[in-house]
Amino acid sequence: MAGADARLWDLTFRERAALADDLEPLTDQQWAAPSLCEGLTVREVVAHLTAGASDNPVVWFLGVLRNRFDFDANVAQRLAKRLGDDPADTLRRFRAVRASRTKAPIPVVAMLGEAIVHGEDVRRPLGIGREYPVEALTRLAEFYSGSDLMLPSKTRADGLRLVATDGDFTVGDGPEVAGTTLALVMALTGRRDYLPELSGDGAAEFASR
What we know:
By secondary structure, the chain is mainly alpha-helical. It is 56% helix and 5% strand.
């Protein structure tokens, strides 16, 4: 397990660094653009990533208590602390946690998911492409399709056969839903923008969830 976690951290650090590099040339207008996270701008999503890599389980739980178990309010409060004075400060703070292993009480693979899924949340609206390592995407697809811990992603996949068209990921039985591993990961996490990239006799059912 220790070796597996070490590899997941390595992949996470690489994704954070790649995202920071992609953010470097953004204009103030781009930083203020809506992300795929409903209600959050690009800058706020990046601040959320910084918060996720900054708050240990004790800090996270105290925030949950302070917000009376309102998890959305806790997320909003934590990211507000990491926005900084301007976009350049937001990016500086994010770069500072590139190699941080600090996290809430969630699996390490979920931290990789934060880096990639939220990375797409900001890249997609800005028209920035990235070729993610298939290994990283496959691990996320396996995690999200098998767990409702972070989101109801397993529930979305139940009773369907998910098939990656660009990798080895295949899971489940039932009507088929096919697409790139990235599209499957993003759709499993509720990003409807990726649904048109999926096909198969189970795609309509999957989209309805």
